[in-house]
Amino acid sequence: MAIQQGQITITGFLGSEPTPLGLRDGARAACRFRLACTRGYRDGDGRWQSLPTTWITVKAFRELALNIVNSLHKGEAVIVVGVLSTQEWPGEDGKPRSHTFIEASNVGHDLNYGVTVVRRIAKEQNDAQPTRQQRQDEGRADAPVDLGVDASRIDPCTGEVTVDEAAQAEVISEANAVAAQAAEPVGAGTRRDDF
């Protein structure tokens, strides 16, 4: 019976580009990156205060490592699930040294900070005949994704949607009108059905 280690989940921003380690085939691939985690709180005056940043090394292996190297970049917000691991080695002075890191089982973009598009990578097959799923996925991997936004409004570098000033002004105007109407006094026992 295997001993189950407690998983941890942590969010933060990539402080470095993922570094490939080992061989780049699926069975022996590995990578690592640094994750910056900054907690914060509101002080007594309601201002946001940041605590010192905690830097954590994350390591991943096999297919996950290959996908991380091909998908994540410095500065992006991510969610990491994994277990704490410790690597030990003798130092130059003969004293034992150790380093604690997260061995990731799952890594992905934190969608609180933007949108992302997932593209499945087909696994190699020993036979030449594609599976039914591969035939269904064929042609969809690079197909455009409808995000409900005109593609010309999406920044190709950051993926952020630019603001349509006129539409934003119209929404703000409507919200202000509703708020003003809601603030008007109403007599006791009177219902307001015009919202």
TrEMBL record:
Alphabetized UniProt keyword annotations: DNA-binding
UniProt keyword DNA-binding, yes or no: yes
Annotated stretches, region: Disordered: 124-144
Listed InterPro entries: NA-bd_OB-fold, Primosome_PriB/ssb, ssDNA-bd
Organism of this sequence: Bifidobacterium italicum
Pfam families: SSB
GO biological process, one term: DNA replication
Protein name (Swiss-Prot/TrEMBL): Single-stranded DNA-binding protein
Biased segments, Basic and acidic residues type: 134-143
Source species, domain of life: Bacteria
